[in-house]
């Protein structure tokens, strides 16, 4: 797998960016790339109004989309792990350039299917870390080999969720757009839990370009930092307070019926495109992988 991934990430190899690419459940790291929606390019989103703010995309196309959903109990601890590229050695390789200081956050959204279209509305924050004791969350992340651990609220309802990990690099954020936002989503199925529905927000919509946590001079000697977005939700009733009014929910478009993969000869390497509307290339996958629908326009060998 490493050699295949390495060939996919050459475009991002010279940059100093990062990708949230692996999860752990109660201290046990899962197979790399499982349960994830991933780009192969490690670039940022800089427009906080972009629709790509949900789970990434746009300039960083999501070309690796797992068909697996991780089953976790409400109250479980989930470890999110970032790395510079998809084949980085977490123990010895770059996580993100040390100059890219800023906060680390995690959001969740309840969905009808964790492998479906990511929603724009329904997001609630469950974790945040910014600047404390003179140390940035990103510096802590680097020191911990790309890992940060969050807790799934024990009181939320069972069902499918997306877990959105987000890192904001502030080294160019003195003007807008300048902050670099890195986000990807993991696919979870929460069991147990309760019936609490957290206050939720739209993504995009939860941040604005004028927020003090988005437009920020990293080099002005600040000793405090206002993390953008609402405070994290807690089952005890704390958190969820917005720094700006929540936006109007955005409906998720209804997709047309899924077309069958087009016919074509040849074989496709794992994680390559093998079908979709308008696709005319080969539809056969190499041994050990299967052509899976990601969306109507993109089928992938997984």
Automatic annotation (TrEMBL):
Gene3D superfamilies noted in UniProt: 2.70.50.70
Pfam family, one: AA9
Domain of life (superkingdom): Eukaryota
Keyword Glycoprotein: no
CDD domains the UniProt entry points to: LPMO_AA9
Keywords assigned: Carbohydrate metabolism, Cellulose degradation, Copper, Disulfide bond, Metal-binding, Monooxygenase, Oxidoreductase, Polysaccharide degradation, Secreted, Signal
Signal peptide range in chain numbering: 1-16
UniProt cofactor(s): Cu(2+)
E.C. numbers: 1.14.99.56
Known function: Lytic polysaccharide monooxygenase (LMPO) that depolymerizes crystalline and amorphous polysaccharides via the oxidation of scissile alpha- or beta-(1-4)-glycosidic bonds, yielding C1 and/or C4 oxidation products. Catalysis by LPMOs requires the reduction of the active-site copper from Cu(II) to Cu(I) by a reducing agent and H(2)O(2) or O(2) as a cosubstrate.
Protein family according to the UniProt entry: Belongs to the polysaccharide monooxygenase AA9 family.
Protein name according to UniProt: AA9 family lytic polysaccharide monooxygenase
Species the sequence originates in: Discina gigas
């Amino acid at each position: 797998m490493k050699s295949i991934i390495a060939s996919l990430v050459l475009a991002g190899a010279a940059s100093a960016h990062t990708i949230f690419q692996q999860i752990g459940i109660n201290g046990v790291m899962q197979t790399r790339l499982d349960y994830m929606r991933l780009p192969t390019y490690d670039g940022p989103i800089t427009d906080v109004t972009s629709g790509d703010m949900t789970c990434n995309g746009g300039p960083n196309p999501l070309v690796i989309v797992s068909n697996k959903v991780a089953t976790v109990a409400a109250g479980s601890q989930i470890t999110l792990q970032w790395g510079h590229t998809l084949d980085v050695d977490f123990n010895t390789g770059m996580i993100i350039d040390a100059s890219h200081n800023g906060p680390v956050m995690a959001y969740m959204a309840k969905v009808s299917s964790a492998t479906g279209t990511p929603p724009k509305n329904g997001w609630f924050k469950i974790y945040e870390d910014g600047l404390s004791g003179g140390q940035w969350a990103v510096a802590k992340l680097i020191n911990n080999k790309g890992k940060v651990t969050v807790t799934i609220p024990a009181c939320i309802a069972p069902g499918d969720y997306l877990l959105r990990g987000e890192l904001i690099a502030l080294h160019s954020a003195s003007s807008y757009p300048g902050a670099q936002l890195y986000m990807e989503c993991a696919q979870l199925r929460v069991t147990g839990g309760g019936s609490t529905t957290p206050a939720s927000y739209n993504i995009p919509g939860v941040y604005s370009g004028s927020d003090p946590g988005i437009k920020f001079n990293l080099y002005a000697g600040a000793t405090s930092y206002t993390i953008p977005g609402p405070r994290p939700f807690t089952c005890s009733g704390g958190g969820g307070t917005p720094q700006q009014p929540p936006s109007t929910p955005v409906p998720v478009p209804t997709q047309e019926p899924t077309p069958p993969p087009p016919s074509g000869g040849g074989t496709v390497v794992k994680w390559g495109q093998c079908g979709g509307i308008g696709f005319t290339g080969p539809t056969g996958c190499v041994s050990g992988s299967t052509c899976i629908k990601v969306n109507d326009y993109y089928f992938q060998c997984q």
